[in-house]
Amino acid sequence: MRLLIAVTGASGSVYAQRLLDQLDPAQHEVHVIQSQYAPQVVATELPGGLRLRDGVQLHNHRSMNLPFASGSNPPDAMVVIPCSMGTLGRIAHGVSSDTLLRCADVILKERRQLILVPRETPLSLVHVKNFELLLQAGALILPANPSFYGRPATVEAVADTLVARVLDHLKIPHQLAARWCEEPE
Ligand SMILES: Cc1cc2nc3c(=O)[nH]c(=O)nc-3n(C[C@H](O)[C@H](O)[C@H](O)COP(=O)(O)O)c2cc1C
């Protein structure tokens, strides 16, 4: 698969890190892009910053010199994780003012898989209306709501309960989090 992982300035950089840790560049073409504000929040939440595996391709949000900025060369899937309400609103309204936003716009128009992992609480009507628009446009909204029935013991394990659902939707096999009513292998 050709995957674009987009990181924004919402809290929850650990979700992006745990997802990137699971994506093997030997098996998938993995591209990463950060929004303008992502580095500030990443620096606050991840000591040492975002770790990228060898082979992952990092793109600048100000350069359209990447394949996915054009409908002629879209990725198979794009995951915005975590997704700020600002980025979510801009995607919902077709604002393509930087590379991350343009790629999301391309994904929607080309009917590829767009997974948004929004994190905000509480939600305003503006947020909910934007959710509605994006669902109608074909995006998957997978809110950053971890689960606890598997009794995760660490912050990373809590994050993995969410990342597991992202991987499920990408149809990438994993052993990240216990499944309900299934014995671990
Ligand atoms: C420490 C920190 C945490 C933040 N957490 C969130 C959040 O969880 N959700 C959100 O929508 N915005 C959050 N913000 C605000 C966004 O970073 C801000 O709206 C920014 O403009 C988003 O830009 P972007 O969408 O280009 O990343 C946070 C900001 C800071 C500094």
Descriptors for this entry?
globular, alpha/beta, 6 strands, six-stranded parallel β-sheet, binds flavin mononucleotide
List the helices and strands and how they pair.
Layout: E1 2-7, H1 13-22, E2 29-34, H2 38-45, E3 57-59, E4 77-83, H3 85-92, H4 99-109, E5 113-118, H5 125-137, E6 140-141, H6 155-170
Parallel strand pairs: 1-2, 1-4, 2-3, 4-5, 5-6
The chain binds flavin mononucleotide.
Flavin mononucleotide (FMN) is lined by residues 8-11, 35-38, 40-41, 44, 84-87, 119-120.
The CATH homologous superfamily name equals: Flavin prenyltransferase-like
End-to-end separation: 26 Å
Low-confidence spans: none
Number of domains: 1
What percent of residues adopt helix (DSSP H or I)? 25-40%
* Total number of strands: 6
What small molecules does the structure contain?
flavin mononucleotide
Quick check: average pLDDT? Answer: 96
Explain the overall architecture.
- The protein is of the alpha/beta class.
- It has a single domain (2-170), classed as Rossmann fold.
- Helices cover 36% and strands 16% of the residues.
- It has six helices and six strands; from the N terminus they run βαβαββααβαβα.
- It has a six-stranded parallel β-sheet with strand order 3-2-1-4-5-6, sandwiched between helices.
- Strand 1, helix 1 and strand 2 form a beta-alpha-beta unit.
- The chain is globular and about 45 Å long.
Short description:
With 185 residues, the chain is α/β, with parallel strands linked by helices. Helix content is 36%, strand content 16%.
